[in-house]
Design a protein that fits this description.
The chain is an alpha/beta fold. Helices cover about 40% and strands about 15% of the residues. It is built from 11 helices and 12 strands. The chain has helices at about 5-25, 35-45, 50-55, 60-95, 105-135, 170-185, 200-205, 235-245, 280-285, 305-310, 330-335; strands spanning about 140-145, 155-160, 190, 220-225, 245-250, 250-255, 260-265, 295-300, 315-320, 345, 350-355, 370-380. Strand 10 (about 345) and strand 11 (about 350-355) form a beta hairpin.
């Protein structure tokens, strides 16, 4: 379906959904304001996240952070209240069809009151739980056995995708990430895209990512471009990332420790912003004369064409972007879009991992997913 049509349908659903939530929940939570003012406030908060992004140059930093936080939480809260609103109206339709479902009008009023109170409390608890998931990263570990030679008996690779440095994810989150990565004693650290959220001027002014320059890795830190890395200007992002001691690979390859090659690709969706054509994977392999006996790792932010890695004999592809929907029910949509929306998969001799990310976009909430850092232990059958 055309993206414009999908966007239009979503906006209709989003706008009408706010009105339905207001109609139902205002029947219990009485606020002494006129309907016009209430609707204005509701739709102001509905589009607050977008409004802040449009006028970010004119707002103080602390106000930006506060409004981004409120706008993100509002989106999550209304999303869940809308689910309960739809359920309520479906029950009401059932009552109309089967008139004895509720005995009296008083029954309806009483049940509506308890339904609204209980659903509100439930949503509040879900949001608190989702915030915990977003700010407390877990470590996931995998082991991959390869027939290829390695520079040592085993290699520890640490992956952290979708950091999203910006107004809501700053130095403190970067410092936590640095500490957790260093505690894992990595040989290589890999970041497949979305290091920044887009507010590159704010990030450079605050030097939000500075703790990441203290990551300890035997063979270095390598990254590829994500769609958000282009939002504030791709070249500015690359320059800032380089200042943190990371190497951004843009349809480039680098060999480390003689027998490991890391390929980083330009983002499939947003390279055109700077008139950068994404090179086919086989061209990159040919241009860098990659030795196929190396253990080859591909960083590709969006997991859109997984067979590219398989057909080009890549050993391990690392991606992000999906956030696994970040919070349910959006995970259901992501599951329909991507072959591998999250997790580990093996195809032939190629291993894949799609991370749900370290940071978040929009609300600092994860439900059905959790902030994560991934550790891969690569072992060679040939080395004893």
């Amino acid at each position: 379906m055309n993206r414009i049509v999908v966007f239009a349908l979503f906006m209709i659903f989003y706008i009408s959904g706010h009105f339905l939530v207001y109609r139902l929940y205002s029947s219990v939570f009485k606020i002494k304001l006129s309907r016009i003012i209430m609707l204005f406030l509701i739709y102001f908060f509905a589009f607050l996240y977008i409004i802040v992004r449009i006028f970010d140059k004119y707002l103080p930093d602390n106000l930006q952070i506060f409004l981004n936080l409120i706008g993100g939480f509002w989106f999550a809260v209304v999303s869940y209240l809308l689910i309960f609103t739809i359920i309520y109206y479906l029950l009401f339709v059932f009552h109309v069809i089967h008139s004895k479902f509720f005995e009296t009008e008083l029954d309806i009023t009483r049940l509506r009151f308890y339904y609204i109170i209980s659903s509100s409390v439930f949503v509040l608890m879900v949001i608190i739980y989702g915030y915990f998931n977003a700010v407390s990263p877990r470590i996931r570990e995998f082991q991959i056995i390869t027939d290829k030679n390695l520079p040592q008996k085993e290699i520890r690779i640490v992956m952290a995708s979708d950091i999203h440095l910006g107004y809501l994810i700053g130095r403190n989150a970067a410092d936590i990430l640095k500490q957790k990565i260093n505690s894992l004693n990595p040989d290589i650290v890999l970041i497949p895209g979305d290091i920044v959220d887009g507010e590159i001027n704010y990030i450079t002014q605050k030097d939000s990512g500075r703790p990441l320059s203290q990551i300890s890795s035997r063979y270095g830190v390598f990254a590829s471009m994500g769609n958000h890395d282009y939002f504030g200007g791709g070249e500015i992002t690359v320059k800032y990332v380089a200042g943190l001691g990371m190497r951004m690979l843009r349809d480039e390859a680098v060999t480390v420790a003689d027998s490991i090659t890391v390929i980083g690709r330009n983002n499939v969706s947003f390279g055109h912003r700077e008139n950068i054509a994404r090179k086919p994977l086989d061209e990159i392999i040919s241009a860098y004369n990659i030795d196929m006996s190396d253990f080859i790792i591909l960083l590709d932010h969006e997991p859109s064409k997984l067979d590219d890695a398989l057909n080009n004999e890549i050993d391990l592809q690392l991606s992000g972007h999906t956030h696994n929907g970040q919070f349910w029910p959006f995970s259901l949509i992501v599951n329909r879009i991507y072959e591998l929306p999250w997790g580990f998969m093996q195809k032939g001799q190629t291993s894949y991992y799609v991370s749900c990310g370290y940071g978040t976009w929009g609300p600092r909430i994860r439900i059905g997913s959790r902030s994560e850092i991934i550790v891969f232990t690569i072992k060679s059958r040939q080395q004893k």
